[in-house]
Amino acid sequence: MKQHRGSGLVAGVDVGGTNIEVGLVNADHEVVDRAKASTPTEGPDAVLSTIADLVGSLEHRPAAVGVGIPGVVHDGEVLTVPNLENWHERVAIDDDLGDRLDLPVALGNDVNVGLRGEWRAGAARDVANVLGVWLGTGIGGALILDGAFFSGSRGAAGEIGHVVVREGGALCGCGRRGCVEAYAGRRSMETTAQAMVDAGRETRLFEIRDEVGKTKVTSKVWKKALDSGDDLATSLFDTAVETLGVAIGSTLNLLDLDLVVIGGGLAEKLGGALADRIADAAAPWVLQPNPDREFVVSALGDDAGIVGAADLGRALLAQR
Amino acid sequence: MKQHRGSGLVAGVDVGGTNIEVGLVNADHEVVDRAKASTPTEGPDAVLSTIADLVGSLEHRPAAVGVGIPGVVHDGEVLTVPNLENWHERVAIDDDLGDRLDLPVALGNDVNVGLRGEWRAGAARDVANVLGVWLGTGIGGALILDGAFFSGSRGAAGEIGHVVVREGGALCGCGRRGCVEAYAGRRSMETTAQAMVDAGRETRLFEIRDEVGKTKVTSKVWKKALDSGDDLATSLFDTAVETLGVAIGSTLNLLDLDLVVIGGGLAEKLGGALADRIADAAAPWVLQPNPDREFVVSALGDDAGIVGAADLGRALLAQR
């Protein structure tokens, strides 16, 4: 790895449940080099070690590193990481990874970091009041309010996945009932589909899953099933969109926002049509319609996390 | 009215559906004189005229006036005022009332203004992230986020009354279904009680209403019915608390706040026990518990609106 301190290059790290992706990002928010590895399942130490190796493999040494991680982040520590295996303790990632790399490290929640990417270089550029809804295994959210990221008292703001839409409704992965994630999170949708198949309903979802060589009903599988007109997939997806409309409508009543950005795998596979459908589903719930309000999908797709994480690293440099 | 410009006295005006209350407030947020009149039903001109008369009747001429009004306020204009009669147009209250009084006039939404009173001199003093939930005929809300009032893109933020808790549930006054206001707003609760009486259920709610000489089931009537152990009143009130818990829980998941302030007539009649019940009802819905989070009732009661409105007027003076 060549030494290029002061090159203006910052590494952005996107830690996902399946893969860790690292990008070297320039001052124009362009990804100029990349590296990727499977997310280790042995816990924090293995994850940090993999991140350090990936950053070390980039063609230039960055001036700083930003990391987006799927958990509650507060003051540089990860408080909870529900989707990573064998990760039970709090870890001060900024210090630990900073020591390994001898670089400044900034840490953020993955969805906050994704929305930051869109805010800097994508669909939310210069918008003052924005909700990001990231559709994946679960549903993550992030908020820009009055032109700044809002993370709440202890870093836990943005959990639109656990806005309740049907009190006493479907069981959610969080143990509560009726959260929008219980209807529109991919893990819940797959569980529901499996239960309906067990009860005798037909669907091609699981055949398609096997055909494309996946172990889960991924966004790609949903896209194929919906395109093929599969009845059960269509019905579950309609419910997902409907409940997202309720949760986002409630959020707009609370926060009167300018823009909703839909991100994550489903947004990437389904594109603008998904944002339009969710906008239509939210409209009836909104008390004060705003003709200037927009619903869009992420413009950077998978790179939103890398670009946003790098920007977080860049912001840390600027503070020094 | 004596002339006391520069006296540090500001008038706070609380426009309600029933009464307009005006207070003369000193720099310590104390109400030193008061005036009150029924809210005219003939529309904006009569309301403004009454406000001007009330302000004129105060023992000193204030240096500025702040007005809290039950509607969506943006840039000094009232966009919609659902609970005042014969008020259909947008009115630039700041300019109009300013001309009548020859004083600077600031305008705010009534619940925002109530929470502002609590923030300056009551239960929310110096707290960074606060939700105000005002229980009245309807349910109003207001937000302090990162130490500043948050009103959204067009002044419509804070509408926790129209957070949906049961998709497809009870009909709300807004025409939608399942909003928390449909279960916990006084007007909805009275409508439901009446429907259940029509269907043969028994309750003393309407007898108590008549005994205390009211035309509506007011907060006082609810208090008496609950104290007497009335079954239907208790059941409707339990549902109100339960749904408030869902809506506030969803809001805490979205916004990770430090404090919830419960205000309005019911809060005044029922006191801290109401805040405790709502806290217990919200707790199961909260994803990230925060041991420092508190639920309290308004400390200023009815005066929150006057004190907050006066503070809005004072803030306008400070900008000049």
TrEMBL record, chains A, B:
Superkingdom per UniProt: Bacteria
Coiled-coil region: none
InterPro entries for this protein: ATPase_NBD, ROK, ROK_cs
Pfam families hit by this protein: ROK (PF00480)
Family to which the UniProt record says this protein belongs: Belongs to the ROK (NagC/XylR) family.
Name of the featured protein: ROK family protein
Upper lineage: Bacteria, Bacillati, Actinomycetota, Actinomycetes, Mycobacteriales
